[in-house]
Write a structure and sequence with these properties.
The chain has 144 residues and is α+β, with helices and mostly antiparallel strands. The protein contains 3 helices and 7 strands; from the N terminus they run H-E-E-H-E-E-E-E-E-H.
Length: 144
């Protein structure tokens, strides 16, 4: 079948393939839960600049799975670990453990000793607050 201009129309399969191809380069990707682990509470992640991540690691009593790339470290935390918390800048909270704008996933830097991938969020939050000189959310003055 030819269109009036002599150009053949695209089939549905071709259009779907082209649409998928448009999004693959910048499609956000989810950090994986390592084999043999379960995530019964779901997974979110907290990203920090790599230099800050190196300072946080020794301050934590227990460390779950941590992923790293050239610029950031990603800490796996249970879903909704941002509830009633403002994570201090420059930390970024990633719902669903999604790594935005990445063509490749960060590599696993540290694996949890147990069967769950989580770093406890409150010690992580407090370590980040201390290192960034940020007052924890619950200690801030409430204005009327």
């Amino acid at each position: 079948m030819r269109a009036a201009s002599g150009v053949r129309p695209l089939g549905l399969d071709t259009m779907v393939r082209l649409q998928r191809g448009r999004h693959t380069a910048g499609t956000p990707r989810r950090l994986p839960v390592p084999d043999g682990m379960t995530a019964p509470l779901g997974c979110d992640a907290v990203a920090v600049p790599a230099l800050l991540g190196q300072q946080v690691l020794p301050r934590l009593p227990r460390v779950g799975c941590v992923y790293a790339d050239e610029t950031h470290w990603w800490w796996i935390v249970p879903s909704d670990s941002d509830y009633a918390l403002e994570w201090p800048v420059p930390a970024r909270y990633a719902t669903g453990a999604i790594v935005p704008g990445s063509t490749s996933l960060p590599a696993l830097l540290h694996r949890s000793d147990g069967t769950v991938p989580y770093t406890p969020p409150i010690p992580l939050y407090l370590a980040l607050c201390r290192l960034t000189n940020t007052t924890p959310t619950w200690s801030r003055t409430v204005s009327a």
